[in-house]
Amino acid sequence: AYVANFNLYGDKVPSSVSVVATDEMAEIKRITTCTMPHGSRLSPDGSRHYSACMMDDMAVEIDTRKLAVARYFVLKKGQEKGFSGAPFPAGPATATAGAAPSQDMSHGMEPPTPGDVSCSPTWAQPSADGKRLFVACNKASDIAEIDVASWTLTRRIPAGDGVYNLAVSHDGKLLLATNKRGQSVSVFDAGTGQELKRLPTRRKVVHGVAVSPDDRYAFVSVEGVGAEPGTVEVIDLGTLATVATVDVGSMAAGLDVWKVE
User: Fold this and answer.
1) Which of 4, 38, 64, 254 has an alpha carbon within 20 to 30 A of 72's alpha carbon?
2) Contact 83, 70 (CB under 8 A)
3) Burial class for 181, CB neighbours closer than 10 Å (0-12, 13-18, 19+)
4) Greatest CA separation found in the chain?
5) Measured between alpha carbons, how far is residue 105 from residues 7, 9, 36, 54, 220 in Å?
6) 73-84 burial, b for 16+ CB within 10 Å, e for fewer?
7) How far apart are CA 103 and CA 109, in angstroms?
8) Eight-class DSSP state of 252
């Protein structure tokens, strides 16, 4: 298991991704990545792990065989570039890419100010074939697509307001995105980048999204506000319509699908 240690209330210094042996439930490695690592996804073959750095405008790739950072990618508009090695090889004082950490503590809820070119990435999702990496740029409200082999930016896909978490269908056809500020979920054609449907959610503060193994449904978690319960909304990926909702505990965040009976 790979766990992003998101230091929301800690000092603005690089945090880490913990690698846990699940048989023993023991942490076997703590890999320093970046400031406020967010999201945790493995490539389809399990050889690479990806996370994003909200405060450093980076995506980070870990080599799971070496348990070390292999590459990172700077995501600020106009400065998009991939690098080899770790972003903080000399410690937390400076980033080799020159991406200065911001001080936004809104966790994806505040829109950017005029002239802000930061990404503030909140999720990194490999494509179904592992050839592309999609990164949710929460502040920019777009999705950066990176070619994994060349480690270069291929395009930026316009998304909903405050795009937050991502998921892909197992057949590789669909890319799903939650829009935290926009109170909605977007469904994209993963090949063309076209937004096929934007579905409003029942409550505010949309968070996670996961696709069932048979690609029939997507499940979306919504945090809610104040005393509201959290909600899981169910989207039929055939009709692109919300077909069910269920209230759960308050502040519902990440979710995943175990299996389909």
Assistant:
1) 254
2) no
3) buried
4) 51
5) 11, 9, 10, 10, 24
6) bbbbeeebebee
7) 14
8) -
11 Cβ contact partners less than 8 Å away, ≥ 6 residues apart: none
The pLDDT profile of the chain, 261 residues, written as one tens digit per residue, is 999 998 888 778 899 999 999 999 999 999 999 999 999 999 999 999 999 999 999 999 999 999 999 999 999 999 999 999 999 864 443 343 444 444 454 566 676 677 788 999 999 999 999 999 999 999 999 999 999 999 999 999 999 999 999 999 999 999 999 999 999 999 999 999 999 999 999 999 999 999 999 999 999 999 999 999 999 999 999 999 999 999 999 999 989 999 888
> Does the pTM of the predicted model rise above 0.85?
yes
Amino acid type, 154 = T
SS3 70: strand
Please state, in angstroms and as integers, the Cα–Cα distance from residue 131 to each residue in 41, 126, 140, 146, 234, following that order. 14, 7, 23, 9, 28
Residue bearing tokens 């989207």: 235
Instruction: Please name which of 128, 153, 130 lies closest in space to residue 142, comparing C-alpha atoms.
Output: 153
Measured from the Cβ of residue 64, the count of other Cβ atoms closer than 10 Å reads: 17
Which residues, including other chains, have CB under 8 Å from residue 254's CB and lie 6 or more apart?
Answer: 165, 207, 208, 221
